[in-house]
Design brief:
The chain is of the alpha/beta class. Helices cover 42% and strands 13% of the residues. Helix 13 runs antiparallel to helix 14. The radius of gyration is 24 Å and the shape is globular.
Amino acid sequence: MCCNTVSMNNMDTNEGVCGGVKKYLLQFLRCVVVQIHCLFDYAIDLFFEFYYNKNKVKRVSPIKNQLLLESGISLAQKIRNGNLTSEEVVKAFIERCKEVNTIINAVANERFQDAIGEAKKVDEFLKDENVDREMLKEKKPFLGVPFTMKESNTVKGMPHTMGILARKDHIATEDAEVVANLKEAGGILIATTNIPEMCSWIESRNKVYGQTNNPYNSTRTAGGSGGGDGALLGASGTPIAIGTDLGGSIRIPAFSNGIFGLKPSGGATSIKGVNMIEEDYEDTIIEAGPMCKKAEDLLPLLKVISGRKLVNFKKLDSHVDVKKLNIFYQLSSEDLITSKVSKIIKSSLMKAVNHLKEVTGSATEIKMPGSEKSLEIFRHWKTRDLKDFCYDLTNRQGRVNIGKEFLNILTGRGKVTLGTMILLIDTYVTPPENEEYVKELTTILLNFLTEKLGDNGVLLYPTLPTRVLHHNESFFKLFNFLYLGLFNALKLPACNVPLGLDKDGLPIGIQIIAGPKNDHLCIAVAKELETAFGGYVPPS
C-alpha cells in the first residue's frame, strides 16, 4: 500500500515536472516566433521607408474654407435656418474634391452638376416660409448636405464596376437601399469613390480606377475597402459617407485617414445593392455604417442608414452617462501571425484608457478567450459571404481559373490584382476551418464579451497593431486586419476613434467595442474621447 502510494506520488511529480517543462518550452517557442516576426516587420519597415523616401511624399493642400470642417448635422441646421445655402455647401465640397483628387485619386465617378442642380432645388424649397423646419430636422436630418460612398454600392444610372475589368461598362439600375435611405433624408450624392477589386483587399487599388493615396502622406495607404471615402473625408472633400464592412472596410480607412467609422451590430442595416447582392438577408457579417469627421454625425447617420431596420435597435436614443460605464481594455490579440502592437498604438490606447479611468473610476484589463485564434474565427464566417467570389469576378459569366490567373499575374498579364488573387487562394485553395471547432470558439468568445460588457460596458482594443502602412506593405503584413474582422464574425458594434497624429503626421486611432445592439455606447465613448483629445485633425 505504501509502495503504491509512493509510486503514484512519483508519477504525479514526474507528470508535474514534464508539464512544467512543456509549458516552459511552449513559452520559449512563442517568444522565438514573436522575435522573428518583429525582426521581419522591422526589415520590411526599413525597406519601405527607404523606397518611399521623403521626396516622394505629397500632402493635400491646406483647408481655406472653414465650412469644410463642419459636421453634416451642423451644415444641415445652417441650411435649414438660412445661414448657408445648400448650393454654397455642395459647391464648396465639390471644389475641394477637385482640388485634392489629383493627389489622392479617391473619386471614381462624379455627379457634380447633377448635385448642384439638386442643391438649388433644396434652396428653392426652403424659401417657402411655411416650411416646417422642425419637421425637416426629424424627417430629413441631412437635407442639402453632400455625401459620398463606395462605387460598390449601386446608384441608379451610375457605373457599378466593382473595380473589375469584366464590369467596366456596367451601369446600376437602382439605388442600394442604404443609398436610397440617405437620399430620402435629404442627402445629396456628389461622387462615388474608389475601392479594391470586389472590395476584397485592405488597400484601395484596382485596374479600372487605379490606386487611392492617403491625404496625410501620398506614399501611405488610404485603407480598404472604403479607402476612397476615407481619403476624401480625411482631406475634407466630403462631410459624411456611407461605408460597408465585412472585415474592417469601414474601420481600416477610418484609422488610416483619421476619422470616425462605425461598423454596427449584426442585422442593423440592409445589404441590398451592396457589392453584387441583389436582395437583403440576415445571415451575413457585412454591415453598412457611417463614416464621418465629427462624432456627432455617427448617431443620426446610423439611424438614417438603418432605415426600416431601425426597429432592430432598442436603445439608440438612450442617454448614456459615461461616468457610469464599465471600461475594459486589451492591448493585443496575442495572435502570432499578426504584427506586434507598436508602442505608439499601445500608448494611444492607454491614453484613452487612463482618461476613461479618471471619468468612470476604474478600467480593467482583460484577455478575450480565443482572440489569439482570430484568423480561424474570421476565416470561417467570411467564407460564407464570399462563396460566389470566383463567379462574381467574371461578372457572373463563368468562373475564374485560379491557376491560370496566377500564371497571368506572374507574367504581367493578370486581369485581377495580387490582393484579389490572395483572397481567391484563401477562399478556394486553402482547406476550410473545422466548422464545429470554430463555432465553439465563436460561442465562447461571444458569451464572454456579452457577459463582461453587458449593457453598460465597452472594450478598448487596437484598430490595427501598427501605424498607417506604405502602399503594398500590407502584402507583408497580411493578417493585421484580424483586429477588426474578429468583431464582424461576432457581429458586435465596433467604432474607430481618431486620437490625433503621430510624430510623422500620420493618423492614430483605436477601436471601441460594445455588446450586441449597444451601438449607442460606442458612440457615447467616441464623443467623450473626441472632446478629450480633439478627434479629427486636418492633414495640413
